[in-house]
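README: folding subset

This subset contains proteins for which both the sequence and a predicted structure token string are available. Records are stored as plain text. Below is the entry for Adenosylmethionine-8-amino-7-oxononanoate aminotransferase (425 residues), shown exactly as it appears on disk.
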Amino acid sequence: MTSGNASPIWHPFTQHALQPEMVPVSGARGAWLKTRDGGLILDAISSWWVVTHGHCHPRIVGAIEEQARRLDQVIFAGFTHAPAEMLARGLIEMVPVGLAHVFYSDSGSTSVEVALKMALGYFRNIGAPRQRIVALEYGYHGDTVGGMSVGARGVFSATYEPLLFDVARIPFPAEGREQATIDAFDAACATEPVAALIVEPLILGAGGMRIYSEHVLRELKRVAEAHGALFIADEVMTGWGRTGEPFACGKAGVAPDILCTAKGITGGSLPLAATLCTSPIFEAHHSTDRAKTFFHSSSYTANPIACAAAVANLDIWQTEPMGERLAALAAMQTERLSALAGDDRFACARQIGTITAIDLQVPDAGYLAGVGPRLARFFLEREVLLRPLGNTIYVMPPYCVSSADLDLVYAAIADAPDALAGGSS
Ligand SMILES: *Cc1c(COP(=O)(O)O)cnc(C)c1O
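--- output ---
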């Protein structure tokens, strides 16, 4: 096992028996991580999808320093502060129209819990209780109990299964089978009143970088509206430019009733999340009856330093040519992905905006089990941080990544199948 002083730390999504050593990172700048021994690693997955403009962006770092000296933390029940107020106004301007209220929390998972509680609170407070939630096959919405309940079930949730609440699930709208998804949702709504549909708009992240059409998203929203069900967009991964537009719902022209955002909200610098909702949802909780209060908080709700980082992020979005930058990155990605698209060691090359994904052809299902970690190890040897989802390799870089950086990433991907077949790992 580990030599010397074994760390007491228990790492996330980590089987310590198979991976006893962690990579010690001592610094980061732009798209690169610096290891303790002076090595460099290209962060091709934005440090788990959070870093948007690059690590240690000077404007975000500056905002954090300044806010930390001014006001570090204050209770947010009964109190407010400028960074939270500025951020809320800025968020409402950036998200699709119709979202008018902002509830803060600290992670993507908590933003989803808040969304689900808002939806049930809405129906209870208007006197027409509904509890049924509908979710998409392969969905991922976080690792808290509510998030796991609405997410796809598997080995990672099996232990907690008895605690998870039941949801109706509709099939993933794969190309050519879109109507089946729309019909299934319509049927689910007709069977029993549905409180809300929760979806990751246009691309399912942790479920395998599965992309679906804007048409389906618009149809799901239309069906939800027809049945009086709320439409929850979990934009925790898709938000902040990943699909080429600030938000995926905006790209598709869909106005959700509730929108969850986290990951890129601070540019990837500090933990913060927001759940935005429409006026009717807020109004249903707005009452002199204390029983209609939205009973939710976390200790660090709207932490001023995190909010200041997010305001700096908004500022970057408002003052820098983000549209051009995202389009240029998308084009660089397309060019490199297309070189692999005809390679029969791979399949299903796909892209939406700045994200690309490709599946490694694997000889058998048994091989599949360990291929993700073996690929990840190979990429690290090539000084590239990629963390495949099984045999799906995806590239989701920070927007400052250079064309030369991307060449390194794709060269490593192109070399991976033969290196693994040769048993180098
Ligand atoms: C990452 C993610 C979450 C969970 O966010 P955390 O900040 O890790 O809790 C929820 N939904 C989606 C779509 C995600 O990608």
